[in-house]
């Protein structure tokens, strides 16, 4: 492995621990290491599993009020086995025992599940079918055994017991320019009826009515019940004898036999009609008649055999504004009519024609408009709402009128009853209302009483006859896991009712430090391994004003940005001992900071001082001033060779300068001037220490938004012997890798060989090597030529400290940083964008991620160039690899995040044993269902 100390950036080291800081970048020479094989889990890999799923709950409600809430679907982190997604409620079965839900996966699939309302299948829901473009046309048969659904314009039938989930029955497929809409069961004929709908070029919609056998035997040739090219033929109510009431685009109602035959006209030919409902066991229908849109309407009754088509029986007079409901058994009809002076009243009549007068008024004339919802099961009352959000009970007191009883006032956003329903026994009313916290569901006794909350805000609920169903959504639930040799991962934390925003691994001893989100956000510490107590310890608060700066072996360092006028730098111990009394490392911290890992001390710029502050031990928080009277400190760094703190500053006395001073404070009043840079006005100074050579490199550059000025890299001696006469590392225009201009492009980049003799720079036409003593500054050596060179994220130097790789003009090359050999092409010319690479098998192979046409795949290449003629894929074509890719410590295992494909977000891939072998199928790193995984890192090997 390479000497990692040659390019550590202590400022960032601990911040990137979750992915890069713990990984030894090895690869395989197609020979698996001992004890590894395709499919074996990587031991000691730590990851966060996060889920954000709707979990269905049911609250039974009866005469005594709401019962305990039942979870009727899988909880987060378990269950569906389909990865991330959202749950949607679709319908309840007629027997009231199950609800059908759709789980919409991140792969854009929709999976139908049946959930039992008694909670007996909560952890084992029945999968009914899988769809890709499910519509809202979902209809369950009256016997609660089958469901009709439309997917990608095809009508299917599936069993609710899940026995044909992988092979549902196709009932109808429309022509390519049409779609299936409004399916319904016709039990008497063992058929289904539906419409084929199409849109014309003018934007009009046309449809025809079809029927098909419920067993799918005529799916290729359904029976056309209508045949028109210019109207909307709509199927309505299904009659018990197997006919369907339909509107055929002429304003008239017809009865159509679903097995074919002559249509029977049910309504007059000169009036427009609307269907209210079916009564008298399907022998009669209640309809409204009017001359044209906007005219008054009249309630009438017709016979479904057509005998009253031209002489319907009137049930009301001509009404300007009409709303009507039928009782559940069809024996009674209630409607709202508007009288004079804008007042409203409710009328109730029997549908069998036994009334003594046409209009039986049951309420006084009211100033507020009434919206009828339904009859109570005993038919003695009606539930209604008024325009002022009141929910009402209207009793039927015979021939007397009365005022409605107000049950409750529910806050809604629009007039009407909205979500209101009755329990099965008719004793309680369920309704939804808005509050400051969201949309909730409440219950109130029908005979009067205090409302009680059934479903808490902000969830709301879907009202069923036996209670309320709601989908509870927490923004995230998460837990931290560790893979184990036995196979099943070990859960290190409980499933938290919040997201884990960050997690970092601290070594020696192994410890997790993580940040939770939400209203009670906090930092926690968790010891890993054989310890007496593995419970998380709260170590620090969290919030907008507390940002992570660093992790030491013992402390968490946060930047408190709420202080005025500057910011404080605070240190919290991992054992939680100073949760309420953090150590103040700097009072006026100005974002210039460096952590000296080997000394457990921080260097900070604080109120025109440069100070060194111990993080741990008896001297923790006691600052030693190493420089004073320095303004606008740009960067701090520590040189272990000279045991000095180095600072790049704007304005020291009369010029910009780079200073050095002993860490013990003995040179605070007389720091050494390593370099003065006054000739570069407003220059940015970027420091890099080369301890083995006793030198500091200084990069001078201008502000990004300014007109470009020359860029210079200077090399200075640690004792300042050449101050004022600094030696250039290369000609102007060359830039050391990792300076701000390129730091964002490729993350941690090697800037020096491991011996510190050579530095790597970007220059005109390629990458160059220059000696850090400046001896070849006039003519640095070209390491890799190219008009367009892309630095590959994730790469480090090979184990000898000299080899690297980069993409030049769409070809990836391996080359020696010191330009001692000719670059070797590892790949052919690559289409697309290569944005990650990693060495494997001690630098003998390179794995890289290539993105082409928004699709990413992993490839492998030997570093001797033997694969330069072709790309060797490592991942299947059906998955797209995300940016997070790491090489596990075993040297032949890759772990990567996916954008599409299988149902896990983190997969591991053991490289094939031979280059001729086909790609090995990746396997999930974690068996956790319904969760997105994020890799934290790997435990240190014993």
Tags for this model:
single chain, 942 residues, mainly beta, seven-stranded antiparallel β-sheet
Describe, in plain words, how this protein is organized in 3D.
With 942 residues, the chain is an all-beta fold. The strands form 18 sheets. Strands 44-45-46-47-48-49-50 form a 7-stranded antiparallel sheet. Mean pLDDT is 82; it is low at 1-39, 703-710 and 742-746.
Q: Beta-strand level of the residues, as a percent range?
A: over 45%
- Give the beta-strand count: 75
Structural class: mainly beta
- The overall pLDDT, averaged over residues, is 82
Layout of secondary structure:
Layout: H1 10-13, H2 17-21, E1 45-51, E2 54-62, E3 65-66, E4 70-71, E5 85-92, E6 98-105, E7 110-116, E8 126-131, E9 139-140, E10 146-151, E11 154-159, E12 169-172, E13 179-186, E14 191-199, E15 205-213, E16 223-224, E17 234-238, E18 243-247, E19 253-257, E20 264-265, E21 272-279, E22 284-290, E23 298-303, E24 313-314, E25 323-326, E26 332-338, E27 344-350, E28 370-375, E29 381-386, E30 390-395, E31 405-409, E32 420-422, E33 428-435, E34 438-445, E35 452-455, E36 462-464, E37 467-473, E38 477-482, E39 490-491, E40 500-506, E41 511-516, E42 522-527, E43 537-541, E44 546-551, E45 555-560, E46 567-573, E47 583-596, E48 601-606, E49 609-614, E50 624-628, E51 633-639, E52 644-652, E53 655-662, E54 672-676, E55 684-690, E56 695-701, E57 712-717, E58 727-728, E59 735-736, H3 740-746, E60 758-763, E61 766-771, E62 781-785, E63 789-790, E64 803-808, E65 811-816, E66 824-825, E67 833-840, E68 845-852, E69 855-862, E70 872-873, E71 880-887, E72 893-900, E73 906-910, E74 923-924, E75 932-938
């Amino acid at each position: 492995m390479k000497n990692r100390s040659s390019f550590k950036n202590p400022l960032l080291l601990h911040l990137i621990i979750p992915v890069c800081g713990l990984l030894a970048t090895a690869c395989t020479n197609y020979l698996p290491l001992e004890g590894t094989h395709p499919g074996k889990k990587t031991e000691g890999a730590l990851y966060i599993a996060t889920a954000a799923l709707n979990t269905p709950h049911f609250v039974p409600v009866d005469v005594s009020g709401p019962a305990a809430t039942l979870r009727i679907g899988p909880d987060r982190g378990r269950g569906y086995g389909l990865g991330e997604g959202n749950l949607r409620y679709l319908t309840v079965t007629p027997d009231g025992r199950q609800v059908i839900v759709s789980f919409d996966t991140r792969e854009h699939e929709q999976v139908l599940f049946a959930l039992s309302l008694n909670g007996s299948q909560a952890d084992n829901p029945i999968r009914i079918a899988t769809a890709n473009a499910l519509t809202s046309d979902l209809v369950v048969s009256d016997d609660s055994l089958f469901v009709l659904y439309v997917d990608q314009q095809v009508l299917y039938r599936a069993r609710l017991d899940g026995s044909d989930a992988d092979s549902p029955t196709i009932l109808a497929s429309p022509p390519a320019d049409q779609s299936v809409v409004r399916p319904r069961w016709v039990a008497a004929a063992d058929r289904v009826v539906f419409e084929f709908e199409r849109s014309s070029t003018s934007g009009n919609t046309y449809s025809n009515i079809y029927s098909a056998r419920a067993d799918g035997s005529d799916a290729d040739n359904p029976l056309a019940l209508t045949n028109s090219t210019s109207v909307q033929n709509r199927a309505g109510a299904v009659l018990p004898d197997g006919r369907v009431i339909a509107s055929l685009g002429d304003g008239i109602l017809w009865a159509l036999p679903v097995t074919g035959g002559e249509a029977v006209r049910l309504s007059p030919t000169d009036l427009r009609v609307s269907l209210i409902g079916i009564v008298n066991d399907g022998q009669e229908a209640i309809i409204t008649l009017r001359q044209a849109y906007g005219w008054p309407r009249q309630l009438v009754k017709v016979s479904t055999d057509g005998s009253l088509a031209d002489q319907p029986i009137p049930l009301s007079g001509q009404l300007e504004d009409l709303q009507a409901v039928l009782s559940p058994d069809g024996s009674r009809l209630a409607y709202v009519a508007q009288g004079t002076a804008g007042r409203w009243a409710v009328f109730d009549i029997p549908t069998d024609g036994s009334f003594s007068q046409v209009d039986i008024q049951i309420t006084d004339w009211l100033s507020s408009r009434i919206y009828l919802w339904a009859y109570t099961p005993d038919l003695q009352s009606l539930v209604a709402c008024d325009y002022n959000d009141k929910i009402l009970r209207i009793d039927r007191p015979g021939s007397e009128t009365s005022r409605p009883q107000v049950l409750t006032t529910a806050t809604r956003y629009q007039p009407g009853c909205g979500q209101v329903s009755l329990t099965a026994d008719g004793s309680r009313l369920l309704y939804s209302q808005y509050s400051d916290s969201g949309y909730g569901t409440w219950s109130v006794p029908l005979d009067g009483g205090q409302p009680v909350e059934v479903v808490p805000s902000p969830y709301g609920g879907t009202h069923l006859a036996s209670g309320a169903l709601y989908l509870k959504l927490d923004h995230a639930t998460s837990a931290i896991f560790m893979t184990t040799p036995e196979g099943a991962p070990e859960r290190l934390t409980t499933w938290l009712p919040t997201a884990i925003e960050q997690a970092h691994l601290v070594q020696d001893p192994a410890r997790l430090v993580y940040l939770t989100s939400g209203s009670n956000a906090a930092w926690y510490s968790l010891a890993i391994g054989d310890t007496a107590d593995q419970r998380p310890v709260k170590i620090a608060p969290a919030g907008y004003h507390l940002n992570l700066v660093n992790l030491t072996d013992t402390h968490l360092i946060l930047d408190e940005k709420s202080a005025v006028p500057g910011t404080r730098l605070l240190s919290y111990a991992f054992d939680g001992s100073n949760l309420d009394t953090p150590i103040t490392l700097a009072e006026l911290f100005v974002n210039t900071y460096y952590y000296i890992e080997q000394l457990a001390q921080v260097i900070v710029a604080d109120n025109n001082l440069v100070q060194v502050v111990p993080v741990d031990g008896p001297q923790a928080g006691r600052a030693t001033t190493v420089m004073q009277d320095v303004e606008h400190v740009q960067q701090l760094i520590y040189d272990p060779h000279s045991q000095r703190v180095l600072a790049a500053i704007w304005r020291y006395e009369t010029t910009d300068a780079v200073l050095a001073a002993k860490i013990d404070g003995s040179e605070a009043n007389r720091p050494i001037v390593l370099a003065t840079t006054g000739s570069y006005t407003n220059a940015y100074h970027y420091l890099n220490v080369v301890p083995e050579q006793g030198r500091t490199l200084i990069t001078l550059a201008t502000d990004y938004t300014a007109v470009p000025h020359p860029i210079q890299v200077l090399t200075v001696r640690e004792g300042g012997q050449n101050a004022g006469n600094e030696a250039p590392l290369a000609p102007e225009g060359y830039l050391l890798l990792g300076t701000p201009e390129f730091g964002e492009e490729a993350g941690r980049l090697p800037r020096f060989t491991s011996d510190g003799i050579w530095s790597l720079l970007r220059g005109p036409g390629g990458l160059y090597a220059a000696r850090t003593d400046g001896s070849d500054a006039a003519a640095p050596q070209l390491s890799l030529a190219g008009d367009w060179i892309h630095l590959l994220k994730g790469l480090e130097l090979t184990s000898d400290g000299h080899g690297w790789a980069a993409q030049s003009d769409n070809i990836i090359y391996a080359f020696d940083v010191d330009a001692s050999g000719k670059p070797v092409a590892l790949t052919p010319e690559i289409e697309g964008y290569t944005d990650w690479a990693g060495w494997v098998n001690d630098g003998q192979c390179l794995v890289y991620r290539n993105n082409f046409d928004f699709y990413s795949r992993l490839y492998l290449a030997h570093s001797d160039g033997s694969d330069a003629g072709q790309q060797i894929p490592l991942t299947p074509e059906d998955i797209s690899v995300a940016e997070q890719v790491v090489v596990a410590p075993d040297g032949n295992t890759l772990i990567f995040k996916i954008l599409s494909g299988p149902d896990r977000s983190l997969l591991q891939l053991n490289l094939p044993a031979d280059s001729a072998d086909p790609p090995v199928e990746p396997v999930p790193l974690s068996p956790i269902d319904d969760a997105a995984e994020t890799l934290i890192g790997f435990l240190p090997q014993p």
